[in-house]
Amino acid sequence: MAKERVGLYPGTFDPIHNGHMDIIGRSLRLVDRLVIGVAINAGKGPVFSLEERVEMVRLETSRLQVDGAIEVRPFSGLVVQFADDVGATVLVRGLRSVTDFDYEFQMNGMNAQLNPGVETVFLAASSGLQSIAGKLIREIAVMGGEIGHFVPPDVKTRTLARLKEQK
Fold first, then answer.
1. Is 12 part of any domain?
2. What is the phi/psi pair of residue 112, to 5°?
3. Contact (CB, 8 A) for 17 and 141
4. Is residue 83 part of a domain?
Protein backbone atom coordinates (compact mmCIF):
# COMPACT_ATOMS: atom_id res chain seq x y z
CA MET A 1 0.00 0.00 0.00
CA ALA A 2 1.32 3.44 -0.94
CA LYS A 3 2.24 5.90 1.78
CA GLU A 4 -0.26 8.69 2.33
CA ARG A 5 0.87 11.89 0.59
CA VAL A 6 0.40 14.79 3.02
CA GLY A 7 0.52 18.38 1.82
CA LEU A 8 0.88 21.57 3.85
CA TYR A 9 -0.65 24.87 2.73
CA PRO A 10 0.58 27.55 5.15
CA GLY A 11 -0.65 31.13 5.36
CA THR A 12 -1.99 33.91 7.52
CA PHE A 13 -5.53 33.69 6.06
CA ASP A 14 -6.55 37.15 7.29
CA PRO A 15 -9.19 36.62 6.04
CA ILE A 16 -9.49 33.43 3.99
CA HIS A 17 -10.59 34.41 0.48
CA ASN A 18 -11.62 32.89 -2.81
CA GLY A 19 -8.02 32.69 -4.01
CA HIS A 20 -7.13 30.57 -0.97
CA MET A 21 -10.17 28.37 -1.53
CA ASP A 22 -9.15 27.82 -5.15
CA ILE A 23 -5.64 26.72 -4.14
CA ILE A 24 -7.07 24.44 -1.42
CA GLY A 25 -9.46 22.76 -3.83
CA ARG A 26 -6.78 22.25 -6.46
CA SER A 27 -4.27 21.00 -3.86
CA LEU A 28 -6.62 18.19 -2.95
CA ARG A 29 -6.02 16.72 -6.41
CA LEU A 30 -2.31 16.43 -5.60
CA VAL A 31 -2.30 15.04 -2.06
CA ASP A 32 -4.25 12.52 -0.02
CA ARG A 33 -4.52 14.85 2.97
CA LEU A 34 -4.01 18.60 3.18
CA VAL A 35 -3.01 20.36 6.38
CA ILE A 36 -3.81 24.04 6.29
CA GLY A 37 -1.39 25.78 8.63
CA VAL A 38 -2.71 29.08 9.96
CA ALA A 39 0.30 31.15 10.96
CA ILE A 40 0.32 33.17 14.15
CA ASN A 41 2.30 35.90 12.33
CA ALA A 42 1.65 38.76 14.77
CA GLY A 43 4.16 40.85 12.81
CA LYS A 44 1.62 41.29 10.02
CA GLY A 45 -0.88 42.79 12.50
CA PRO A 46 -3.80 40.56 11.54
CA VAL A 47 -7.35 41.90 11.79
CA PHE A 48 -8.60 38.58 13.13
CA SER A 49 -7.16 36.64 16.05
CA LEU A 50 -5.49 33.31 15.41
CA GLU A 51 -8.51 31.48 16.83
CA GLU A 52 -10.91 33.41 14.58
CA ARG A 53 -8.81 32.73 11.48
CA VAL A 54 -8.61 29.02 12.28
CA GLU A 55 -12.38 28.96 12.83
CA MET A 56 -13.08 30.71 9.50
CA VAL A 57 -10.76 28.37 7.59
CA ARG A 58 -12.39 25.34 9.21
CA LEU A 59 -15.87 26.59 8.38
CA GLU A 60 -15.08 27.38 4.76
CA THR A 61 -13.14 24.18 4.10
CA SER A 62 -15.90 22.08 5.69
CA ARG A 63 -18.10 23.19 2.79
CA LEU A 64 -15.82 21.35 0.36
CA GLN A 65 -17.23 18.04 1.64
CA VAL A 66 -13.99 16.07 1.60
CA ASP A 67 -14.24 14.12 4.85
CA GLY A 68 -10.90 13.66 6.54
CA ALA A 69 -8.89 15.11 3.67
CA ILE A 70 -8.40 18.53 5.30
CA GLU A 71 -7.01 19.40 8.70
CA VAL A 72 -6.69 23.01 9.90
CA ARG A 73 -4.03 23.75 12.52
CA PRO A 74 -2.45 26.88 13.93
CA PHE A 75 1.33 27.09 13.94
CA SER A 76 4.30 29.31 14.69
CA GLY A 77 7.92 29.01 13.71
CA LEU A 78 9.45 27.60 10.58
CA VAL A 79 7.13 26.18 7.94
CA VAL A 80 9.48 23.26 7.22
CA GLN A 81 9.55 22.39 10.92
CA PHE A 82 5.76 22.40 11.01
CA ALA A 83 5.75 20.25 7.86
CA ASP A 84 7.81 17.66 9.76
CA ASP A 85 5.44 17.89 12.74
CA VAL A 86 2.41 17.05 10.57
CA GLY A 87 4.17 14.52 8.32
CA ALA A 88 3.92 16.66 5.18
CA THR A 89 6.27 16.04 2.28
CA VAL A 90 4.62 18.54 -0.06
CA LEU A 91 4.50 22.28 0.61
CA VAL A 92 1.80 24.03 -1.45
CA ARG A 93 2.29 27.66 -2.38
CA GLY A 94 -0.03 29.82 -4.47
CA LEU A 95 1.39 32.34 -6.92
CA ARG A 96 -0.45 35.44 -8.08
CA SER A 97 2.35 37.25 -9.86
CA VAL A 98 6.01 37.32 -10.81
CA THR A 99 6.66 39.20 -7.55
CA ASP A 100 5.17 36.28 -5.61
CA PHE A 101 7.34 33.91 -7.61
CA ASP A 102 10.55 35.81 -6.77
CA TYR A 103 9.81 35.66 -3.05
CA GLU A 104 8.58 32.05 -3.10
CA PHE A 105 11.55 30.93 -5.20
CA GLN A 106 13.93 32.31 -2.55
CA MET A 107 11.92 30.68 0.23
CA ASN A 108 11.96 27.39 -1.67
CA GLY A 109 15.76 27.48 -1.81
CA MET A 110 16.06 28.13 1.91
CA ASN A 111 13.41 25.54 2.80
CA ALA A 112 15.13 22.91 0.63
CA GLN A 113 18.34 23.43 2.60
CA LEU A 114 16.54 23.32 5.95
CA ASN A 115 14.45 20.25 5.07
CA PRO A 116 15.26 18.45 1.81
CA GLY A 117 12.45 15.96 2.52
CA VAL A 118 9.79 18.57 1.72
CA GLU A 119 9.09 19.38 -1.92
CA THR A 120 7.46 22.71 -2.80
CA VAL A 121 4.70 22.80 -5.41
CA PHE A 122 3.69 26.16 -6.87
CA LEU A 123 0.12 26.59 -8.08
CA ALA A 124 -0.59 29.63 -10.24
CA ALA A 125 -3.71 31.52 -9.26
CA SER A 126 -6.68 30.75 -11.46
CA SER A 127 -7.75 33.37 -13.96
CA GLY A 128 -9.85 36.02 -12.27
CA LEU A 129 -8.36 35.35 -8.83
CA GLN A 130 -4.84 36.70 -9.42
CA SER A 131 -5.45 40.12 -7.90
CA ILE A 132 -7.03 38.91 -4.66
CA ALA A 133 -5.04 39.67 -1.51
CA GLY A 134 -6.16 39.95 2.10
CA LYS A 135 -4.63 43.41 2.47
CA LEU A 136 -6.54 44.69 -0.55
CA ILE A 137 -9.78 43.11 0.63
CA ARG A 138 -9.43 44.89 3.96
CA GLU A 139 -8.65 48.22 2.25
CA ILE A 140 -11.65 47.92 -0.08
CA ALA A 141 -13.93 47.08 2.86
CA VAL A 142 -12.68 50.02 4.96
CA MET A 143 -13.46 52.37 2.06
CA GLY A 144 -16.99 50.97 1.68
CA GLY A 145 -16.36 48.90 -1.42
CA GLU A 146 -17.98 45.57 -2.22
CA ILE A 147 -15.85 42.58 -1.15
CA GLY A 148 -18.39 39.84 -1.88
CA HIS A 149 -16.62 38.96 -5.13
CA PHE A 150 -13.44 38.11 -3.23
CA VAL A 151 -14.52 36.25 -0.08
CA PRO A 152 -17.14 33.66 0.89
CA PRO A 153 -20.39 35.16 2.31
CA ASP A 154 -19.69 34.35 5.99
CA VAL A 155 -16.19 35.81 5.71
CA LYS A 156 -17.63 38.97 4.16
CA THR A 157 -20.04 39.39 7.08
CA ARG A 158 -17.32 38.84 9.67
CA THR A 159 -14.83 41.10 7.92
CA LEU A 160 -17.28 43.99 7.60
CA ALA A 161 -18.35 43.60 11.25
CA ARG A 162 -14.74 43.52 12.48
CA LEU A 163 -13.68 46.54 10.48
CA LYS A 164 -16.76 48.45 11.71
CA GLU A 165 -15.75 47.60 15.32
CA GLN A 166 -12.28 48.98 14.72
CA LYS A 167 -13.44 52.40 13.48
1. yes
2. -65, -35
3. no
4. yes
